[in-house]
């Protein structure tokens, strides 16, 4: 009986040396996110963060979030551009944390790939690190796994998790929202990282190539679709902490669209009315709608339509909030207001059968969309 051929981990498709080379290539970018609070270096079994500063809090609450990028990675892979997808990952994670008023302290990432190409992994992680710098968040660790036979050689997926902290007395949310509060929109940078299954189906059905120049975009289709997610965390925290800006709640507009995510941060008995005519929907959303003949209801419940974050603020500080956000470089504008369901305005909104409520299992308030998009 002849002996079977010798098998090694490398011949099975896993290259541990490639992993080591990837770590060397990404080291510098990761270290730039570290402050004195980060202990140890890159490559340890666990990332460590000095939490002794929490002793200064009266009642520190930890906030945590985890997410991925979704099928937007397919666009990055098709274009062989991997250094921007990290902004999508970081934005999806840390901007969920800042919604409750928490400061995102540190983050970890996970990358699964069919074949570990050091330069590609380093590009992905470098993008994550750059986005962490923008957010003021330390990238303290991560994992790269090679899955031959499960993923194709050029395929990968990314995910991440972050932890933040907020003083209990300063938590933002439905409990703070009041009758007469104003809704302030913060502009998205584009599609962000949601709805790409719909977007990819639309362009596939239309037979459009990612290299196709699109006049409405002023660049190629692929360049528009790969536009990185705007990372709001640092700016939102600055706005929350600014004297005179009375911020009651915030929502991150991700999967489900504007109305569904806004309803999640409203208390029961409150109705938010959003005026669709308050902003001009960016070209990428209009093109996708027209190209795929996407119904309005599906369009606005899938994509952010140009609004990536909404702050719910007191009426007296709305104008100042808009001005302060613009000074930080984030376009902002008023899109509506909140009313008690028992008020005349609230009762009028509740009479509309298109009201959005009860999303994500949250028994909170409701959102009423009025007017026509520009």
Report on the structure:
The protein is of the alpha+beta class and 374 residues long. It contains twelve helices and 15 strands. The longest helix is centred in the middle third of the chain and has 18 residues, at 118-135. The protein is globular. The mean pLDDT is 92.
Number of domains: 2
The largest beta-sheet arranges its strands as 10-12-7-13-11-15-14
Low-confidence stretches: none
**Which percent range describes the beta-strand content?**
15-25%
* Radius of gyration using CA atoms only: 22 Å
Percent range for helical residues?
25-40%
Kindly name the structural category: alpha+beta
- The CATH superfamily of the largest domain turns out to be PurM-like C-terminal domain
In CATH terms, what is the fold-level topology of the largest domain? Phosphoribosyl-aminoimidazole Synthetase, Chain A, domain 2
Mean pLDDT: 92
**What is the overall shape?**
globular
Annotated CATH architecture of the largest domain:
Alpha-Beta Complex
What is the number of helical segments per DSSP (H or I, 4+ residues)?
Answer: 12
Keywords: ATP-binding, Cytoplasm, Ligase, Nucleotide-binding, Purine biosynthesis
EC number: 6.3.3.1
Catalytic activity: 2-formamido-N(1)-(5-O-phospho-beta-D-ribosyl)acetamidine + ATP = 5-amino-1-(5-phospho-beta-D-ribosyl)imidazole + ADP + phosphate + H(+)
Pathway: Purine metabolism; IMP biosynthesis via de novo pathway; 5-amino-1-(5-phospho-D-ribosyl)imidazole from N(2)-formyl-N(1)-(5-phospho-D-ribosyl)glycinamide: step 2/2
